[in-house]
Amino acid sequence: MSFEIEVNRRPFDAEPRPGQCLRTYLRERGWFGVKKGCDAGDCGACTVHVDGEPVHSCLYPAVRAAGRQVTTVEGLADPGGELHPVQRKFLEAQGFQCGFCTAGFLMTTAALEAERGTDRDDGKLDDLPRAFKGNICRCTGYRAIEDAVNGVKHVERPCAGEAVGRSLGAPAGPQVVTGTARYTFDVAVPGLLHMKLLRSPHAHARITAIDTTDALQVPGVHAVLTHEDAPDVLYSSARHEHPTEDPDDTRVLDSVVRYVGQRVAAVVADSEGAAEEGCRRIVVTYEELPYVLDPEAAMAPGAPVIHAGKGPDQRIARVQDNVAGEVHGEIGDVAAGFAEAAVIHEETYRTQRVQHASLETHGCVAYFEPREDGTGERITVRSSTQTPFLTRRALCALYGLPEEDVRVVAGRVGGGFGGKQEMLTEDIVVLAALKLRRPVKLEYTRAEQFYGATTRHPFTITIKAGARADGTLSAIQMRVVSNTGAYGNHGPAVMFHSVGESFAVYRAPHKKVDAFSVYTNAVPAGAFRGYGLGQVTFAVESAMDELARQLGMDPLVFREKNIIGAGEHMLSPIGEEEDLHIASYGLAQCLAVVRRAIAEDTSHEQVPPGWLTGQGTAMSMIATGPPGGHYADATVSLLSDGTYDIAVGTAEFGNGTTTVHKQITAGALATTADRIAIRQSDTDVVRHDTGAFGSAGTVVAGKAVLLAATSLAERLKTFAARHTGVARHLCRLGAEAFDCAGRLVTLKELYEAAHASGRASEVSAEGHWGGSPRSVAFNAQWFRIAVDPDTGEMRILRSVHAADAGKVMNPMQCTGQVEGGVAQALGATLFETVRVDERGEVTTAAFRRYRLPQYADVPRTEVHFMETLDAIGPLGAKSMSESPFNPVAPAFANALRDATGVRFTEVPLTRDRVWLKLQQMRGDLS
After folding, report:
1. CA of residue 202 relative to chain centroid, distance
2. In whole angstroms, how large is the CA radius of gyration of the chain?
3. Rounded distance, CA 83 to CA 743, Å?
4. What residues form DSSP beta bridges with 462?
């Protein structure tokens, strides 16, 4: 067969493998801008042009491209390097966050732009919901993408010393839009072996035998790993600064499987195909065991014990009752509080499993590098992780390795949302690499993300709340049951966090909680945006609305009468967190924004006849960092060319911390962000960083960067004064030089002088922050919606979000974080759900069965930032990555209640569920 293809104006003649898709063909030849998001034609991240037509290359057979011209995102720019107009527009609008989906949107837009004014122009660019029906973004909420397509510019020009508070573009922006940003698997590793996992078909079973003979006969298979090859060590896949926060209930490979999808064996081979064939040839004999999927049933007497043989030594609260963790507490006397209440609302609310659905799946590559001292090799793990340092620590503990023998590095990460605060692939890959002394790669499929990674915790919350006739709360009581699935990673911590700020944001003299994190034989849950607060906030904010309605009071007025005030102590029945303070207060401003939106709104005037309209509000409070310490080290140095370098451990996955860290440094050093380089998310770079979770990128790592940059500015000033003989107070730092009483001394000259005099330490400084004390951030969401009672169709007429982020470091980026959080929360509110059948098997293991929000599903949200300045956060900033998610579901449910008169107590609020309930209320169904 003769095969020729032109890719980005370069000829190739290597024949594709039988059945090979165009995506893998292109990536194997170094065109890494072509991304894998789904391998099913659902997400569009792999979009390329074939003879100018956009195609999903994961579905397009490579052999069909013979004789054709293929263009990837790397080939959009002209040969001289000038960006394509669409690339320029996405860069100027900052139409991306993590950027993993961006190539797909660029290629789709560029193809449609090329059709403008031709006979093929069918008007798609004037109908973006139709244009982007084959593209998914999990980060942005789509508004920034729409602005990019329409040529709206948001990026501001840098100005020396005035970086903070400006909408500067992401440093990696040019690489994102040209497809040259390097994500986890965008590297070529010589001699790479591929791993595939055999997974359990049973919800609970004991492995009595594994026969790997046939698997090892598959050509190209190098090893088959089973529980007999794994260390007999228990640990947690969850990553926390303090490992004692999670139960040690997991093995790398176990002789007992506890959910459908748990890994049973690993096959390592020359190709993914050979590894998959090896998995098919493994013969496993199981002894099936009783299983339980409902957490209430799991706590009942006689239920199967999921982790028999473990107990307090593994930090499991009550192993015989399948309780991973629990908390009980009371302030005052709730019985007395309810006795004095004029109205009481008591109801049970339920939230579902949700998948993080980051477009870059879990995975890593482990390979060996020479030690710097030349005394042998060390292992390097390149991983899609939010926690490089904690992962290194866990790998060292698991395999008895010294930390200097293990390096963990994250490239640019294609989305996280808490899902990558886990060690789900690194442990098994390192086991194989150590055994074979070869590079090994494991990349999850999209299906594996659903049944082999983690989900948001499903919650059942029974709340009882009472209020006096004057509208003040008298008592709040909750029983909270969280389904942690088969393993307790994050289970107790999520449960504990869920009943903290959700209680503390309201004043009530009597509060009580009983909360349980419960094991079941279902796919494990884990960390997810909001970390439990969103689930409980759904119940609390729904209850507040119902109490107001019973009293005949405006729900907004009811909240204003009961919310915590500035300077007040935050009281929760689980106890007061001594390092948590209201260091700035914007909640009242948030509610004022909502009040203005309600007063001026006219969106309900344009709804079709017969439709119902309603409006609803919800609010939330969240700590600006995890409890117990969250640590970050940073180093800022002057370089030989007079520019600066930041070394910091936190990872970049669309959270925007890279931009903010450069802005902080530019402000402290009176320079511009483009004169600052950054090295990050690499255990070689700094001493330690707890990780990019808990919204800590700005308030913890950013604080460390600020301390380092401020210290360097002082050191440089002192050295400049010594070098010139001019009084220190007369030396003023500029973008490229010091002005010392009229004498200009370039930063390059200072660097050379420092090194020549043996004072190299004078041009570098370190910063450290331990994450304590902590402040709180506030958010409020308001919706106006319309509902068709005959079909259950719901439309969002207007969406307004008020955010108390303290000093907003980068308004453009922070707006994007809010919009993305609202969009993701709307998905969880309206249709997303990971379904588990009666056998414990996930039945929604593909995007087309799971239903992610697409362009047409997400309204434009009006984002308002409050005028506050935090006393704890760096330069007055607070966190804003997680918190926008939390009030969305209850705000929508409250609007639906206002429109229909029906209180919906379970999410998602799917169209069929709403229609059925309305028909039942109307008596149309028996």
Report:
1. 30
2. 28
3. 41
4. 348, 479
pLDDT for position 1: 60
Q: How far from chain centre, in Å, is Cα 814? A: 15
Place of tokens 């299983």: 291
Residue 864: enclosing H or E segment and its boundaries? strand 861-865
- The 10 Å CB-count burial string (b at 16+, else e) for 757-786 is eeeeebbbbbbebebbebbbbbbbbbbbbb
Position 922 scores a pLDDT of 83
Neighbours of 566 (CB within 10 A): 12
The answer to whether 617 and 782 are in contact (CB under 8 A) is yes
Q: Are 7 and 26 in contact (CB under 8 A)?
A: yes
**What residues contact 923, with CB distance under 8 A and at least 6 apart?**
none
- Over residues 463-469, the mean pLDDT reads 98
Residue 288's CB is within 10 A of a number of other CB atoms, namely 11
Q: Are 60 and 21 in contact (CB under 8 A)?
A: yes
- Residues contacting residue 599 through CB under 8 Å, at least 6 positions apart: none
Q: What is the pLDDT of residues 532-585, one digit of tens each?
A: 999 999 999 999 999 999 999 999 999 999 999 998 989 899 988 889 999 999
Q: What 3-state class would DSSP assign to 51? A: coil
Task: Looking at 452-570, list the stretches that DSSP marks H as alpha helix, in order from N- to C-terminal side.
Answer: 491-498, 501-504, 533-551, 555-562
Average pLDDT over residues 869-878: 97
The model's confidence at residue 711, banded by pLDDT at 50, 70 and 90, is very high
pLDDT, tens only, 729-780 = 999 999 999 999 999 999 999 999 999 999 999 999 999 999 999 999 999 9
Burial of 2 (0-12, 13-18, 19+ CB in 10 A): exposed
CA distance readout (Å), 485 to 70, 385, 500, 577, 767: 45, 22, 22, 28, 40
Q: What is the pLDDT of residue 575?
A: 85
- Which two three-digit tokens encode residue 153? 């510019």
* E strand intervals along 395-495: 406-409, 440-443, 459-467, 473-485
Strands 47-50 and 776-787, bridge-based pairing:
unpaired
Give the CA distances from residue 849 to residues 56, 262, 835, 839, 843, in Å, rounded to whole numbers and listed in that order. Answer: 18, 21, 10, 18, 8
Q: Which residues pair with 49 in a beta bridge?
A: 54, 71
pLDDT score recorded for residue 551: 98
Residue 925, pLDDT > 70, answer: no
Task: Give all strands of the β-sheet with 440-443 in edge-to-edge order.
Answer: 221-225, 263-269, 193-199, 440-443, 363-370, 377-383, 406-409
- Find how far residue 401's CA is from the centre of its chain: 30
